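Q: What would this chain look like folded?
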Amino acid sequence: MPLQVNLFIGPGPDSRASGTALSSALDRLSAAQAISWNRVVPATETGLRQGLVARPGELLLLAANVNASAASYVTLTLEDSQGAPRSLNAQALAQLLRQAAPGLNAVVLLPFDTDSASRASPRVIAASRGVADALLGKGIAAVVALPVAEQRLERFVAALARGEAIGEAVARANLDGVSPAAVCVGDASLRLLSNAQPALNVVPPASVPAPPVVATIDPVALALRAKRQAARFDVFLCHNSADKPAVKLLGQRLKDRGILPWLDEWELPPGQPWQPLLEKQIQSIASAAVFFGPAGISPWHQQEMRGFISEFVQRSAPVIPVLLAGASGEPEVPLFMRQLTWVDFRRTDPDPFERLVWGITQRRGDE
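A: My prediction, written as structure tokens:
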């Protein structure tokens, strides 16, 4: 029996073009008798449920806009009964899939919301991970995040139709070397078909070595790795070294959100002059957060503010003054900083961390 595939495409500005590309890839595999596929319509919650009940399949391809709000509330965009966009949270989606198709073990998430045809934004990568976590929590064995690309999807599904494991199929999809790579969260050793299918004309040439099984990969970690390799830091963390423990904790929380911070301890190698390295790297950092904590302002902290931070001001890059918990009073700061909106971790409302993320990304959490 060929691999049974369901394709669900939510609404969005890219839905028509993406639908055409994805359908073309699946049509070629169907013509080669590798798969049998069905498009689930309408693109509503009810349509998805009824479609899966009628034809559960072994693989669900889910193409939709994804978003994570300030409270890590992850949603996908479907249609309502009138054809208007409607958000469905990831937990509700997971429950729907588990009830409508209890035997479904693998879901491929194809997010529309991308910065370009092949590079998903950090926000989308983080939201995709939220969807994956919800699905895994309801018993889906493996979730693959796959940027919408016709050839990638064709290589991936063809590998599954040959009986290869999910991880091997992900490696096939990534043969083009385009970033970000497709990633698997969950059981990378899962095989959807136990019987191997005949070789297809979409198999990579014999000269290409068989890729190794891919282990579970964190999409957020993958995005951070790509940023670091390209030296694309999101924020420079300017601080008094006495406040470093608190700043490091915030830096780790930023990394968990797909935001790459520049912190001296993490980025300056031992045994090399630090100032030339910092001067070189600071030119490409997108924003700066200046922290004021219980330790006050040290002479070096003051020098950083008046020296390196001026680089951000000249580029009209965001400079975010931040008061750490335990900071006393209002610190003496350069005149230009007094006119800026502060983030205050001495308060809990509004959430200071979400405000810091907003200042760095220039995006509200609910956008």
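Residues 114-119, 196-217 have pLDDT under 50 and may be disordered.
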